[in-house]
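Hi R.,

Here's the chain you asked about this morning:
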Amino acid sequence: MKPFVRVEDRHAFDTIIDARSPAEFEIDHMPGAINCPVLDNEERRIVGTLYKQAGAFEARRLGGAMVAANLARHLRGQFADRPADWRPLVYCWRGGMRSGAMTTWMRMVGWDAQQLAGGYKSWRRHVLTTLETLALQLPLVVICGATGSGKTRVLQALAAHGEQVVDIEGLARHKGSLLGALPGVPQPSQTRFETTLADAIEHIDLSRPLFVEGEGARIGQLNLPVPLVARMRDSPCLEIDVPMPARLAFLLRDYAYLGDRPEWLAAQIGRLKALHGKTTVDAWQGMALARNLPELFAGLAARHYDPSYARSQRRHFHRWNDRMTIAADTLSADGIDALAASIAERVNARWPG
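And here is the predicted structure, written out as tokens:
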């Protein structure tokens, strides 16, 4: 048997097991992995403290007892119904003692368990390499459009039509603007975001167009990988052109939940005082507190978002002057579906662009 396997061979296994603590797993983990910790959060803290205070032997003696108890619990629980031919791949932080202990006991039972060489750290290197190399090859078509053009909904409709799509804002759990935070939905860690992004682009067919939404270098608190931003800047653009009444109607549907968060909304708008002055921002904050979303959204679009959009697209996208423009009169569900069908037809007719 091969005692260690590479990240590239992970798909050959039935189950990927993360033997680290739940806190480590929450920050980031390999796609599809299940968390079966050999030390929980508190146990890991205790063993780490004992290592510093009393040395490696005492830490290993106590830690070994904890690991044995947890392995017994997993064998009686999550692993109890696994067949004899089950092949799990186990990893911890560096591919050391935690995953080694679990792999040893699994092999003693009779399963063909193997250990990931280098552990999570090797997975992390794989993610960074993927983002640095594959991002520069992606056949991107960048969907642009003023605020309220329904770009994310169009991406979702394109996916439903069988087109290749990566919803970067969906992976970031943020709509990408000043008001883009989703209620009760925290953004993932930077490393988790990069893992999900790398996993998404690894499955892309490089011979077909890949639709993404035009983004800045940051989405909320997260940074987009520099190679992906560079590729986006050099890729062909498609602009959705929607009249203001239809955009406003869409915004009022898509951001209706902001009416339930007037104080948060007003606080976010307060960050615009340096750009628009106290008088204008005070008026917008008053609309937010009064839950007057129609007037607020119309004012923000006309005075803030639309002028910013007009400036930023030409500055950020090198092929902006050659963009394809597709007009839409409505952003109803049927209208978005028809718009996506039109985009797919026109882009594929001209691909490669």
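One quick note: The longest helix spans residues 293-316.

Cheers,
M.
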